[in-house]
Each structure stands twice: as C-alpha cells, then as structure tokens.
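Holo prediction. Input below; ligand is adenosine-5'-[phenylalaninyl-phosphate].
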Amino acid sequence: MLNQVEELASKAFDELDRVSDVNALEAWRIRYLGRKGTLIRILRSLLTLPPEERRVVGARANELKKALETSLAAKKADLEQSAVISLQRESLDVTLPGHPVLLGRLHPTTQVLEEICDIFKSMGFQIVEGPEVEWEYYNFEALNMPADHPARDMFATLWVDFETESADKTMLLRTHTSPVQIRVMEKSRPPIRVIAPGRVFRYEATDATHEWMFYQVEGLAVDKNITLADLKGTLFEFTRRLFGSDRKCRFRCDYFPFVEPGVEVAIDCLACRGAGCRLCGNSGWIEILGAGMVHPEVLRRVDIDPDIYSGFAFGMGVERIPMLRYGIDDIRLFYSNDLRFLTQF
Ligand code: FA5
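Structure of the complex:
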C-alpha cells in the first residue's frame, strides 16, 4: 500500500508540472483530491489494513494530501499571475484612432450612364443592349455604308481575325452603338423608343478628348410623324436636365450616312466658359453627340416603310459628360485606374 502512495505522489507531481491552464488544474484537483479522487480512495481503504501498517501508510497519505493541496494553491496563484500578465500585454488603447473602412464606389462613367438612362427612361425610352463584337453588316452595311464607302473612314476600325465560310461575314469591335438601331428595328415594329448604352472601340491615337475605348448611348425613336423638332425637343430637354438650363447647347449640320439630315450637338466648355482652352481645342465647345433623322434607306432595309414612318437617332459620347460637368481636362484619366482620380467621384 505504501508503494501505491509513493507512485501516486510521483504521478500527481509530474502531472501538476505539466498543467498550463486553470481548466486543466481543476481536472487535476478532481482527479487526485476530489471526493472520488485517488488519494481519498486510498485514505478510505486504510481501515482494511492491520493497525501497524495503517499508522505508517495513513501518516504518509495525510502528508501527501497536504503537500498536494499546498502545491495546488501555489500552481493556482502562478497561473492567475501569468493570466494577469498576458491580459496586461493584450490590453487595448481604446483612445487610438481606428482603421478607416474603405468603401467601394461606382466608376464615374457608370454613375453618369445611370443618370443618362434615368432621364431617358422618364421620357418613355426602353433600355436595350447589343454585342460589342459585331458583324460588319450591322456596324456599316445596314447603316448605309457599303464596302468602300468613304464614310467608313470616320470610324477607324479594329477588325476581328475570325475565319468564316462566307467572305461577306466579317467581324469587328463595334465602332459605335448605332448597329443596335438595326438589331432593334429588325425585331420590333414602330412605335419604337429605345436607348442603347455600351462600350465602343476605335483604332485611333488618344488625346485629351479621344480614347480608343469609350462609352456611347444610342437613342432611337421611330413612329408616324416624327420630325426634327422632336429630336431637338428631346435633346434640349435632356441637356437641360443633365447640365442645368444655364448651359449653352449648339446644333450644327453634320454628316452621317445613316441619317438625313444629320446634326452634331455641342455644349459650351465649362473649363473656359467658351473662351477656348486645351479641353475644347480652343473652340469653346465640346461635341457630345451626333444625331439626325433616320435615313429612308435604313428604314427600308429593315422593312419599315419610310413613306409611313419616320424616326430620329442620336449617339452620344458618355465620358465627355462628366468631363464637361467637373472640368476634367483629359479623358485618359477615366481608364488609367488611378485611385486618386477615381475616389473623387
Ligand atoms: C457616331 O458614333 C455616330 N454613330 C453617332 C450617331 C448616332 C449619329 C445616330 C447619327 C445618328 P461620332 O463618331 O461623332 O458619331 O461619335 C459620337 C460621339 O461619341 C461624339 O460626339 C463624341 O462625344 C464621342 N466620341 C467620338 N469619338 C470619341 C473618342 N475617340 N473618344 C471619346 N469619345 C468619342
């Protein structure tokens, strides 16, 4: 029995050495000193021993019990002390400034696109979309620009190297959103009122007002009795709502093979208030869109009778609108991914 007590003593002290937190210490206490613990079981079984052995084993067991209790108290104090130290180390200075939470935001082009779409939606226009990789037919042919038409030069084109069986089926990156006009008129009959926002691509050198990739919003209205006055009324209302009534808006004759007559619309330059600067190329005006009355040939090609129906169309450059509004003097800032620029909007 004495051997059992000695074994218990060495095991209990060994385990106590390895205890490293208060939960393990409590489990240790229950295992060795608890009411059903090993030492108490030994003390209870003393009664079964002969008196002489009982005295010796009893004395050693009681001595061990005291030693275990003392070591338990010391270990507990130790653990509590180190818990306090680590808490002190982890303490927070609640007066320190926090880390700013960076919120994402919409790109300035997206913000303006949404604004443009909202204005036209409120005038009864529906929003439609077309593909960015387009057939030559929709980008040129159906818009009254057959192969070798000199007006194709107005749209420096990025061609897509794509093998087709038929030579007349060539693909390109659309140079404007006007092909969506044809796609819409092929599928629906007048009355039509749609706008088509999207990206367009041109193989041209960039400068302060020209990018090789930019956004346009196409507009198309076809119905009986639509006149140039409807086009002017719609675009004047649009510019008034977007820029305010104090900005000047200029209509001038222009040429696009898919409209007749054709016009270009410009807004007075905000940066120089019309005096002339780098942004407006010293003209005092920034062209924002091309427009006109849909050419009878274009209507005929999609089986809409030009003797019964007429329509107007426009295509506006989106980036030039925030440029005018905020006085941004270089379009290339939009897609250079400079957060110092983008986070201002
Ligand atoms: C066209 O793209 C015609 N499809 C517009 C049109 C539609 C005319 C319907 C008649 C009827 P234009 O190439 O002028 O036209 O471009 C229209 C607008 O896009 C311009 O007024 C300008 O605001 C913008 N734009 C043109 N080229 C660039 C460019 N490289 N970078 C940024 N914006 C441009």
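The chain has a mean pLDDT of 91. That is the main takeaway for now.
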